[in-house]
Amino acid sequence: MVECPVCQSKSLDNQLKFCTTCGWNLTANSDTLGQAPEPSIQKENLKLSWAKQMWQRFQFQQKEFQQLRQQAKSSLNQLQSQLEQANLEKKLLETQLSTIGFKLEKKEQQNRQLQSELQEINRERQELQLQLSFTQLQLQKEEQKNLQLQSQLQQTNEDKNTQNKSILELQSQITQMQLQLDSSVNNYHKLQSELQKNQEQIASYEQAITELQAHSQISESPPKRKNYWQLSE
Ligand SMILES: [Zn+2]
After folding, report:
1. CA max distance for the chain
2. Does the reported pTM lie above 0.90?
3. Which of 19, 25, 108, 146 could serve as 4's disulfide partner, Cβ 3.0–4.6 Å?
4. What is the 158 CA–ligand 1 centroid distance (Å)?
C-alpha cells in the first residue's frame, strides 16, 4: 500500500511511480532518501511542503470553481426560463400587434369612407348654398317688385282720392245748380202768374174799350186782333 505524501490518496500498487491523483513522484521518497545527504533531505522536504500547499490551494480553488459553476448553471437555468417567458410574451405581443394592425387597417378603411362621405356632404352643402343665394336674389327681386306695386297702389289710391274729391265737388256744383234751377223755376212760375194777371187785366181793359166804343156809336169797326193770353197757351 502506497500513500501519496501530497494528496494522501492511497494505492495498492507498490510499483506505482507517480500519484494518479496529483502526479507527485512517489519514487523520490522511499529509495533514495535513506542514503541522501542532510541538505538534500531538507530540500526534498521543502519541495513536499510546497507541493502540499499547492495541492490544498488547488483543492480550495476547485471547490470555489465548482460553486461558481453551480451558480452559473443556476443562473443559466434562470436565464433560459426568463428567455422562454420572454418568447411567450413576444408571441403574445406579436398576436396583439397583428390584431391591432388589423383593427388599424379597418379604421383606416372607415376613415377613407368617412372622408369620401364628408366630401360628398361638402359638395351638397356648396350646391345648397348656391341655391340659397339664387333664392335670396329672387326674393330681393320679388321685394323690389312688391315695393313698386305698393308705390303704384299708393299712387292709385291718391288718384282715387283726387277723383273722389272731384266727384264731391261736382256733386256740390250739381246741388248748387239744382238750387239755382229751383229758384229759376220759382221765378218762372211767379212770372207766369204775373203774366196771367197782366193778360187778365189786358183782357178786362179790352172788354172795357169795346163796351165804351159800343156806347159811343162809333161806326168804324175795331181792329181784329188776337188776345195775348190766347197766344201764350
Ligand atoms: Zn498525490
Report:
1. 257
2. no
3. 19
4. 150
